[in-house]
Amino acid sequence: MKNNSFSWDAFNDAPVVGIMRGVTIDTIHRIIPIYIKAGFSTVEITMNTEGATDLIAEMRSVYPQINVGAGTVCSLEDLQKAADAGAQFIVTPIINEEIFAPCKALGLPIFPGALTPTEIYKAWTLGADAVKVFPCSQFGVGYIKDVLAPLNTIKLLPTGGVDKKNIGEFFKVGAVGVGMGGSLFDKALIQPGKELELEAHFAHIKAEIKGVQEPTLA
To answer: Would you list the domain boundaries of the chain?
Structure first.
């Protein structure tokens, strides 16, 4: 297995997990250099993407300066495949208690998915490095603020419903990071010929979080 060292410094400098689902290696090679140029450093390839492990391995080889993780990890089998491919962190949409200890043994940060305060607290006590609040699209910034009122020691990573208009608000209420999929890797902007527009899009998002994030991970 490859060196799976996750750079917390890189993540904290740009605390966005870019979620890539259903992408091809050609698309990755076209847009990741733009992503890196904009100052972002963390990408998640979902395990339900065709050839996900090959994509993770390729990205680890070609882009060693960024964190490359595996998302939609729901089982020990998913975890082993992701780890063997060189994933540097693990993201789940659910709480599967079986994968926490193996992640710790492998030195892989884990961001498990949870929604209710009870689920969020459970994920944290099981050893989450941050809890992915999912799907946040139905609840928004106010929900994160409300959850953090009593659970202020838990690090939250809202995912779903985060876009360039509201991303700064999530950090202002105490999120340590966010997960972004289609609102970050906009389908219209990741097409060939849209590189300049994509660069401007990434720059806009980076500018929205600069100076507003307060808590950091690890």
So the answer is: 8-209
- CATH 3.20.20.70 for domain 8-209, yes or no, is yes
Tell me if residue 68 falls in helix, strand or coil.
strand
Could you tell me the CA-to-CA distances from 34 to 87, 187, 191, 195, 210 in Å, in that order?
21, 15, 13, 8, 18
Q: How far is CA 164 from CA 23, 42, 182, 203, in A?
A: 22, 17, 11, 10
Integer angstrom CA distances of residue 59 from 62, 108, 143, 214: 5, 17, 34, 29
- pLDDT digits over 135-157, tens only? 999 999 999 999 999 999 999 99
Contact 189, 197 (CB under 8 A): yes
The pTM of this model reads 0.95
Do 56 and 75 contact (CB within 8 A), yes or no?
no
Amino acid identity of 104?
A: K
Is the separation of the CB atoms in 21 and 187 below 8 Å? no
